[in-house]
Amino acid sequence: MSATLDNDRLCQRLPDAPTIVSEGRAFPVERRYQPLATHLRFDEAVAMATAELLRNENGSLLLFLPGVGEIQRVHEHLASRVGSDVLLCPLYGALSLEAQRKAIVPAPAGMRKVVLATNIAETSLTIEGIRLVVDSAQERVARFDARTGLTRLVTQRISQASMTQRAGRAGRLAPGICLHLLAKEQAERAAAQSDPEILHSDLSGLLMEVFAVGMSRSGIAFLAGQAAGGESSGRPPFIIDVRRAGGRAVKRAGPENGGNG
User: Which residues form the signal peptide (predicted)?
Assistant: First the structure.
C-alpha cells in the first residue's frame, strides 16, 4: 500500500474488507536532514542545497517543491549552478504532455536530469534514472473556509508519511539518497499522517445533490460522519447554511409524499 495511507484507520472503517499484503521491491535509501540557510530566500536556498548534492553524488535528481511559482524560481537559480550535462525539467499538471514526457523519460546518454516537481510525483509515477531526492518538506493544498465560502491555497509542512513516500522515490531502481530540507527534530514533530482532503474541501455542491435526490436524514448523517472521520467533534465543511450556498432545499415528491418517485 501507499506509505501515505493510514492502513490501521482504514481497516477500522472497513472491518469486513480483506487485507492483502504485497511486498514490492525497494532499495535502501539514505535519509539526510539539512535545514535551509536562513540568510537566503527559500528559492535560492533550495537551489544551493540541490546543486551541492549534485556535485557530491551521481545520478539524476527529483526535487519536490510546493507549487509552480517555486518551480520556476528555483529553476532560474539552478540554471547558473549546474553544468551543461544537467537537464532541468519542470513537472506539474498544467504542463503540456510533451513537457511532462520529457521529465519522465530517461536522460540522454552522458546527461543527468533534475526534475522539479510538485507532489504530482509523490505517488503517481516512477521517473527513470532517479537515485537522488531533495524534499522541500512543503506542499500547497486547497483549504475551504466555511465562514467565508471561499477556497484558498495554503503552503504547509508535509506529514511524516509524505516524507517517507518522497524518500522512497530515490530507491525505486537502485540504492539512493533523500535530502530533507529541515532539521531531523522538525521532521519528527511533523504530523504522522496528512488530513483527509474531504475535511478541507468545498462540498456544497455535494450537499445540493444530496438534498435533490431526497437522501434520508440518516443517510446525510452517515455521510457527515464519514467526512468528519467518524469523530463527533467539529463538523465537516459541507454542513453549512444552505442559503449562504446560494440555493434552497427542495423537498422531493416521492411515494411517501404523494408523488411518483
Answer: none
The residues with which 151 forms a beta bridge, in sequence order, are 144
Q: Who contacts 229 (Cβ-Cβ below 8 Å, separation ≥6)?
A: 196, 199
Question: Do 88 and 167 belong together in one domain?
Answer: yes
Residue 93: CATH number of its domain: 3.40.50.300
Q: How many Cβ atoms from other residues are within 10 Å of residue 177's Cβ?
A: 20
Predicted model pTM: 0.78
Displacement of CA 45 from its chain's centroid (Å): 22
- Which cell goes with 4? 501515505
Cell numbers describing residue 168:
522512497
* Helix residue spans in the chain (DSSP H): 7-13, 42-56, 68-79, 97-104, 120-123, 160-168, 184-189, 204-212, 217-227
Phi-psi region of 23 (alpha: psi -120 to 50; beta: other; left: phi over 0): beta
- Comparing C-alpha atoms, which of 134, 125, 108, 145 is closest to residue 43? 134
pLDDT digits (tens, 9 = 90+) for 100-128: 999 999 899 999 999 999 987 777 677 88
Residue 247 DSSP symbol: -
Q: Name the nearest CA neighbour of 114 among 163, 179, 158, 175.
A: 179
- Give pLDDT tens digits for 57-112: 999 999 999 999 999 999 999 999 999 999 999 999 889 999 999 999 989 999 99
